Every structure is written in structure tokens, then in C-alpha cells.
């Protein structure tokens, strides 16, 4: 079975948590990455393996991953797969393999469908053999942890140890989640890495044009051109956006909301000072502030912009006629 986090990401995470590992007084697991990601196999003969349902759901999740076609080539779960994987029956069956009392299962399942689909799947991915973390779902819910506060970071200071939201809302940054204080260090590292697979951005919303993308956050691009093309807009890369990561209203406006669509064709432009794009275009709102000296603005349809590792990018469609490389 494929591990839920690439080895290079784990390596980076372990370095980041070196201080954390030293400050914790809890007992730690030792060993290689193979121990964290054993080659789990569902029992084919004899009685079912411990956590059989959780391991099967974990396998189903990893099979649904898409791999973003970008330099880091990070895996992500397309948004349209969430409702397929997380149904009420699926949650109820999974909770039967936890230590959470039966009387809480129905309410927890309803809450997961409303506010915790991603959190639920992250906890499922942490299942290793007979060990599981889904039993912490009720405590995490009581502590205020849900999909809205993802992604999470974890303190590297002395105890009391806590998690905190990396989400952009200022109010959430001040919140501390102490329900993680009893977690094993290795599970914290795995949680921090696995969460990004469920956080690929959705582009094209009318109320949010510019996005700030974490370096660990996968981008839902596919079939990118091998190298940038030079044209009247400077250097651009051609590719497609996974349709599950385009706002539904934007898809309708583009006439791309029919079923079976594999990708939305777009151009992605790195904003450079030499392009003078910022003098013509507001990168925060997606509005043109002045006419382009060569291209009529009605031929360029901005979709979104994002900032990553200090660089700004604009995603747009070229409307009617030739591409901007002409």
C-alpha cells in the first residue's frame, strides 16, 4: 500500500520536529519509516485483521489520490471524492472499531458529514495495524478541531503542548487545541504531513481571487507543458485544473460544468517585474486597471492568482483565437 506521505516530506517534517521530539516527555516509538508505514495487508484467510474496516477505508482513500502535475508533484484527494468516501454508513462502521462509546456514534457521524470529513479521513490514514487514532475524534470535536481550522501546526515549546490553526482567519490563530497533548510524537508528524492531501485549493470563487499557498499544499494542476512559452504576456505555462477544484459558479460561467469533464484548460503566468503586469492588472481582485497595449482585455479571462514561496502567479483562460504565445 502506498504511504500517505512521500518520504521527502517526512524527512523534512522530522527535521522540523527535532526540537519537538526533545521537549516531549512522552514515550516515543523508534525505528525506520517502514515501521510507521508498514506494508499493511487485509487478512485474506482466517479472522479479519484488527481495524479491518479502517485499513480497508485507508486503502480506498489512497487509491483515489490524484498527483498534481507541478514541480513537487504532490498527491491530493480531489474534492469530489470526499462525499463518495465519507458517507454516514462508512463513518458508523469505522467508529465501531474505536473505543468511542456506541451512544455517541450517531451524533459524531452527523457532525463528520457537516464539519469533519477531512479530519475524519486524516485520522483514518493514521491507522497502522492494530493502532488507530480515530478514537480521538470525539475529543478533537469537543476541543473545537474541525475542517475549518485545518491546516494545523503544533507547538515546539515546553508542555502544555498544543496544536493551533494555520488557517488565514485571525480569530483561529489565537486558538490552542490541547487535545493533542497525549499524542505520540510520530502520530503528530504524520498528521501534519497527511493533512495537506485534503487541502488542495479551489480556484475561481467570486469572493476570493488571490490565494496564499503553503509550500506543502498541493496544487490541482494536470498536464502542464514541459517548459514556459514566451509570448506577448511574457512566460506562461499551459495546463489544466482538476474540475473538482474549480468553483461551481465559475465552471458554469465558463460553460465547463458538464459531467465527465477531465480538466479545465488554463494558462499559468509567473508575474515578473519585466512584464509590467501589475501596472495593468490588480492581482488581488482580478480586475484590469488599464488597457493592455496589444491584447484586448476581453480576450483574457482571469480565474485566480496565488502566491507561493514569494512568487506571484496568475491563472487565466485565453478567450477566442490564438494562445498568448502568439
Which helices and strands appear, and what pairs or packs with what?
Blueprint: H1 7-16, H2 18-23, H3 33-36, H4 52-63, E1 66-67, E2 75-76, H5 82-85, H6 88-95, H7 105-115, H8 117-125, H9 137-142, E3 152-154, E4 163-165, H10 170-173, E5 176-177, H11 185-194, E6 210-212, E7 221-222, E8 229-231, E9 234-241, H12 248-254, E10 264-270, E11 281-282, E12 287-288, E13 300-308, E14 311-318
Parallel strand pairs: 6-13
Antiparallel strand pairs: 1-2, 3-4, 4-5, 7-9, 8-9, 9-10, 10-14, 11-12, 13-14
Helix pairs in contact: 1-11, 6-7, 7-8
How would you sum up this structure, described in words?
With 326 residues, this protein is α+β, with helices and mostly antiparallel strands. The chain has twelve helices and 14 strands. Helix 1 crosses helix 11, helix 6 crosses helix 7 and helix 7 packs across helix 8. The longest helix has 12 residues, at 52-63. It is elongated and about 65 Å long.
Amino acid at each position: 500500500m502506498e504511504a500517505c506521505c512521500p518520504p521527502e516530506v517526512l524527512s523534512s517534517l522530522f527535521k522540523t520536529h527535532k526540537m519537538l521530539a526533545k521537549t516531549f516527555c512522552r514515550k516515543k516509538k523508534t525505528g525506520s519509516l517502514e515501521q510507521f508505514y508498514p506494508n499493511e495487508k487485509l487478512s485474506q484467510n482466517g479472522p479479519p485483521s484488527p481495524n479491518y474496516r479502517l485499513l480497508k477505508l485507508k486503502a480506498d482513500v489512497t487509491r483515489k489520490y490524484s498527483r498534481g502535475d507541478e514541480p513537487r508533484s504532490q498527491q491530493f484527494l480531489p474534492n469530489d471524492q470526499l462525499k463518495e468516501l465519507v458517507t454516514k454508513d462508512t463513518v458508523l462502521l469505522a467508529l465501531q472499531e474505536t473505543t468511542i462509546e456506541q451512544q455517541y456514534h450517531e451524533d459524531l457521524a452527523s457532525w463528520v458529514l457537516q464539519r469533519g470529513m477531512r479530519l475524519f479521513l486524516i485520522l483514518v490514514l493514521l491507522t497502522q495495524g492494530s493502532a488507530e487514532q480515530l478514537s480521538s475524534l470525539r475529543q478533537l470535536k469537543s476541543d473545537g478541531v474541525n475542517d475549518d481550522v485545518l491546516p494545523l501546526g503544533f507547538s515546539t515549546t515546553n508542555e502544555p503542548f498544543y496544536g493551533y490553526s494555520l488557517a488565514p482567519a485571525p480569530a483561529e490563530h489565537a486558538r490552542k487545541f490541547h487535545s493533542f497533548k497525549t499524542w505520540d510524537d510520530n502520530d503528530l508528524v504524520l498528521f501534519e504531513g497527511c493533512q495537506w492531501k485534503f487541502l488542495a485549493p479551489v480556484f475561481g470563487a467570486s469572493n476570493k481571487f488571490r490565494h496564499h499557498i503553503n509550500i506543502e499544499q498541493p496544487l490541482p494542476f494536470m498536464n502542464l507543458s514541459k517548459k514556459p512559452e514566451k509570448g506577448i504576456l511574457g512566460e506562461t505555462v499551459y495546463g489544466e485544473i482538476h474540475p473538482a477544484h474549480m468553483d461551481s459558479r465559475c465552471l458554469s460561467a465558463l460553460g465547463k460544468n458538464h459531467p465527465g469533464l477531465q480538466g479545465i484548460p488554463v494558462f499559468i503566468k509567473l508575474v515578473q517585474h519585466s512584464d509590467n503586469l501589475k501596472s495593468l492588472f490588480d492581482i488581488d481582485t482580478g480586475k484590469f486597471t488599464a488597457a493592455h497595449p496589444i491584447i484586448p482585455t476581453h480576450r483574457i479571462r482571469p480565474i485566480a492568482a496565488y502566491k507561493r514561496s514569494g512568487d506571484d502567479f496568475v491563472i487565466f483562460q485565453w478567450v477566442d483565437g490564438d494562445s498568448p504565445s502568439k
